[in-house]
Amino acid sequence: MDTQQKEIYEIVERGMAGKGLPDKDIKKLYEVNPESEEAFHIRWAGRALTREAADGKAEVHAQIGLNGSPCPKNCQFCSFAVCNGVRKGKLEMPLEDVLEYARIYEEDGANAILLLSTATYSLAKLLEMGQAVREIISPDMPLLVNTGDMTLEQAQQVNAAGFNGIYHAVRMGEGVVTTIPVETRLATIKNAQAAGLSISTCVEPVGPEHTSEELTEKTRMCIDMDAVSAGLGRRIGVPGTMLYDLGMITEFTGSLFVAVYRLATGLAPRLNCSGHSLLTAHSGANLAWAEVGTNPRDTKERTEKGGRGQSLATATRVFLESGWEVLEGPSPGWILD
Ligand code: SF4
User: Fold this and answer.
1) What stretch of H or E contains 281?
2) Measured distance CA(231)–CA(61) in Å, rounded
3) In testing the pocket of ligand 1, which one of 67, 69, 71 has its CB within 8 Å of the most ligand atoms?
4) What is the DSSP letter of 125?
């Protein structure tokens, strides 16, 4: 074993203590060749640590995309962004459909339900959707929302409507390939937490152009958010979007990064995303999303109809085939007092 390999094995051993790693160690792990023996050791370690953190259980959360109207925030990776010209006209899912999806998802065993909207979807409408979904799902079923940035007052309204948490991230290249400043994203996280909402986050959307420095910087931001779920997700190239030509990292590389995230963060949080493939589920990801409705990684009106959106059954099968148990019932830890 040469000195570099030895160093990686030593970092992994420190990571296996479950207390997280310093930035310099995280950066070194992100730089490992995905084909190398050390990379497979990292994947093994990431998986072992997540299994310990979550008692061998994976979860599938269910996302309902509420709208797909063009969004002026212009994130260059997103199919909703005006600058990409992929989406045209107003597209909103009617309340009856949202409720039907939520009802079916709970019946079919989703561990949490998440409503997704563009940043410009009306807050009043979002609150109305949240209240209506909250009324038909069990009180202990977590209800999350992935929407635009919010003030403290707006976050309090979101909480009062029956949401328990938000998905929110400082995206790769935030403020450069998006028009939203990093500080605005971080302020929303703070406002949500101050309003009693839990956080789900991720280092995303990761592409081949991203350096180990930026991966490490965003990993640290995620760790500092004290989220209930976090991890790493690769960018899905949507034809027509400005970043499409930059390409994608492979699932193989992504599976290494997912394992690195776990070693970086330690035993908390319990949920490591994103487990959308056998490779990532093998490497320590234990959270995946089933998706219906609109989807920023897709151009279909209904992602479940011939698009990217995977079903609850498919996501569950990926985990079972990867040796995970899948949690039955509502995901714990999201509903704060
Ligand atoms: S990622 Fe969100 S904020 Fe950015 S363009 Fe898409 S919908 Fe708008």
Assistant:
1) helix 278-282
2) 14
3) 71
4) H
Tens of pLDDT along the chain (337 residues) come to 899 999 999 999 999 999 999 999 999 999 999 999 999 999 999 999 999 999 999 999 999 999 999 999 999 999 999 999 999 888 999 999 999 999 999 999 999 999 999 998 999 999 999 999 999 999 999 999 999 999 999 999 999 999 999 999 999 999 999 999 999 999 999 999 999 999 999 999 999 999 999 999 999 999 999 999 999 999 999 999 999 999 999 999 999 999 999 999 999 999 999 888 999 999 999 999 999 999 889 888 899 888 888 999 999 999 999 999 999 999 999 998 6
Q: Look up residue 274 and give its amino acid.
A: S
- For ligand 1, is residue 238 a contact (CB within 6 Å)? no
Instruction: Provide the residue type at 229 as one letter.
Output: S
How many Å apart are CA 126 and CA 59, to the nearest integer?
25
CATH of domain 7-326: 3.20.20.70
> Tokens at residue 285, please?
């990801």
From the alpha carbon of 118, which atom of ligand 1 is closest?
Answer: 7
Token pair listed for 251? 């699932």
pTM value surpassing 0.85: yes
Residues in the chain: 337
Q: Which atom of ligand 1 is nearest to the CA of 80?
A: 6
**Binding site membership of 118 for ligand 1 (Cβ less than 6 Å):** yes
* CA separation for the pair 162, 142 (Å, rounded): 9
Name the percent of the chain in helix, strand, coil, to the closest 5: 40, 15, 45
| Contact 119 CB / ligand 1 (< 6 Å) | yes
Q: 3-state DSSP call for residue 10?
A: helix
Q: In this structure, are residues 176 and 218 in contact, taking their beta carbons and an 8 Å threshold?
A: no
Q: How far is the CA of 91 from the centre of ligand 1 (A)?
A: 15
User: With a 6 A CB cut-off, is 78 part of the ligand 1 pocket?
Assistant: yes
